[in-house]
Design brief:
Structural class: alpha/beta
Oligomer: single chain
Strand content: 5-15%
Number of domains: 2
Number of strands: 15
Distance between the termini: 24 Å
Order of helices and strands: EHHEHEHEHEHEEEEEHEEHHEHEHHEH
CATH class of the largest domain: Alpha Beta
Bound molecules: pyridoxal-5'-phosphate
Helix content: 25-40%
CATH architecture of the largest domain: 3-Layer(aba) Sandwich
Largest sheet: 7 strands, mixed
Length: 382
């Protein structure tokens, strides 16, 4: 049996929830979307949540609602999925990469400050920190910099629903609570923590951003009497912005809400798997980059750094273990190289990429399967 690096977990309850929606009056824009948004906002401890068709749409709407325009510079990390940076380009903005911290793999706060402080205030419009692998960024530090240099913040928490960092007064700050970001985005692709088939969410504490997101999600059209410029009657609507159809269906939302109920038990199991890997590899001289079991980490990915990475990857695949590499640094993608980025620009990201492997981690991975992965890695190096 093949063991992937990540996998959804669908229960009978999930199936019942979807079937119930199929038998209801609404397949889209009905009560299931509203419920998913409310439950997700509660889960993140955020005031508002807007469900959209996928995580990329969430990023795109986040960028548009913060008024990122052609020529605006936005800083992000090269170790993320392409969609993070692409969303800036959709709006005509310019992506500026900031290297990662070699231990956390997250955007390096000191390098971020170097970039921001080496140009006049106002040079950079925004920052998109990514809670890579499920490890929450220290958003308090990012926010201090953003405030000082006049930047907005979109937190890409696609890997990290339920993750948190500990702030300077020793409080847990959950991803998506929107205290240290203008907007936070999530994805419900099956390989992420909560599967909706496809799906995404934006959370915020700002009512005006919330209303803007709702409008942009549906063609920039509103029926809200408080926003209408004229009002011809009950049928009347107005288009105020150039929006999109980025709606989530009720079928997907029902699955999302059902999955959300099990989100915390999924996190517990992921943490257990991470602990098992950590303990198994702790004394192995050929395994690097382990940081122990980090508090608040959502463990979307479990990453090790090794020599002979390519050979290990091939060996594991030959044994039906579908370990993965996350990610090829974005600044080295042919498309981004066209903007002048080149090898050597992001030494920490490039060094990380030459050694990283993401090992299987998902709630239904059994201890037996995990032992098989561990034993194969030991066999390979011994
Ligand atoms: C998955 C992912 C996205 C995009 O989400 P989709 O739902 O696949 O569009 C964006 N950023 C990161 C970090 C992701 O992992």
């Amino acid at each position: 049996m093949a063991i992937p690096y990540g996998k959804q977990h669908i229960t009978e309850e999930d199936i019942e929830a979807v079937v119930k929606t199929l038998k209801s009056d609404f397949l889209t824009q009905g009560p299931a979307v509203k419920e998913f948004e409310e439950q997700f906002a509660l889960y993140c401890k955020s005031k508002f949540a807007v469900a959209v068709s996928n995580g990329t749409a969430a990023l795109h709407l986040a960028v548009l609602s913060l008024d990122i325009k052609p020529g605006d510079k936005v800083i992000t990390t090269p170790i993320t999925f392409a969609a993070t940076a692409n969303s800036v380009l959709y709006a005509g903005g310019e992506v500026v990469f900031c290297d990662i911290d070699p231990h956390t793999y997250l955007i390096d706060i000191n390098k971020l400050e170097e970039i921001l402080s080496s140009s006049p205030k106002g040079t950079y419009k925004g920052i998109i920190p990514v809670d890579f692998a499920g490890r929450a960024v220290d958003m308090q530090s990012v926010k201090e910099l953003a405030d000082r240099y006049g930047c907005c913040i979109i937190q890409d928490a696609c890997h990290a629903p339920g993750a948190y960092f500990i702030d300077q007064s020793n409080h847990k700050q959950f991803c998506g609570n929107s205290i240290y970001s203008d907007l936070t985005v999530f994805s419900f692709h099956p390989v992420k923590h909560i599967a909706a088939g496809e799906g995404g969410m934006v959370t915020t504490n700002s009512e005006s951003l919330y209303k803007k997101l709702l409008m942009l999600r549906t063609h920039g059209i509103t029926k809200d009497p408080a926003l209408l410029i004229e009002n011809h009657g009950k049928w009347y609507y107005e288009m105020h912005e150039l929006g999109y159809n980025y709606r989530l269906t009720d079928i997907q939302a029902a699955l999302g809400t059902s999955q959300l109920r099990r989100a915390n038990s999924g996190l517990d199991r992921r943490k257990e798997i991470a602990r098992n890997y950590y303990q198994a590899f702790e004394k192995r001289p050929y395994i690097h980059g382990q940081s122990g079991v980090v508090e608040g980490h959502a463990y979307h990915l479990y990453i090790i750094e090794v020599d002979k990475r390519k050979e290990l990857h091939e060996y594991l695949h030959a044994n039906n273990i579908f370990a993965q590499i996350h990610y090829v640094p974005l600044h080295l993608m042919p498309y981004y190289k066209k903007f002048g980025w080149k090898k050597g620009d992001m030494p920490n990201a490039e060094n990380y990429y030459s050694k990283c492997v993401s090992l299987p981690i998902y709630p239904t991975l059994t201890n037996k399967e995990q032992d098989l992965v561990i034993n194969l890695i030991d066999n390979f190096y011994e």
